[in-house]
Predict the structure.
Amino acid sequence: MPESPRTSLFAHAAVNSRPVALGYRVIALTLILTGVIRHSDVLTGQPAWTTLPVYTMVSNLLSPVWMLLLIVRTGRDLVRMGPSDTSTPSARWSGAVMMAITVTMLIDLVVLVPTRFADGDSDIFSLTDNLIHIVTPVLMIVDWLLFVPKGAFRWVDPFVWTLIPYAYLVWAFAYGALGGEFTPGQTYPYPFMDVDALGIAGVTQWIVALSVALIAVGFVFVGIDRVLASLARRIAR
């Protein structure tokens, strides 16, 4: 029996239209790259190289790489297999990249924005800040919600996804310990990593608290993935 239009469109709990997905992903890539370019000042002739070793930029560089892979895969599948269905190299890798950039948004909103408010920073929600801290994470989340087939996530994935930010933490601490500076005179990228001010115990408490919060968010993503996959199966019956 042929599928109904409704079942065909949402069979994977996703919008199964490659032209729509391709259009969205091209727009998303453009906005993400705009944020990266503005934040790094690469077009000014005086690039801000100090932005590169910060996790915000690391995750904002990871996002366009993944989005470009999505575009290539979607375009290839559109030509080879037609306009209907979803296209992604890996749903679980989409989750990993989505979580990596979500870390950037949550740390900014929960940790950095209150600190900057306290310091009297009036440029907190500038266009560039919004692009790299809010717009890019939201674009990656929306791409997963709309265009990535559901049901692939596992309950262990939130723990696996922490490997990306943890790898950054290990590198950042090692880089700072060897004398590397994230800004002139500062050997740590974020206030909660300042061992001199907080001590090892204080930094550890921050990392544990943030880890718990981020893993909890990861479980929310897995829960949404499971619920949407279940609904899609019921519709398809």
In short: Residues 5-236 form one domain. The radius of gyration is 20 Å. The chain has a mean pLDDT of 90.
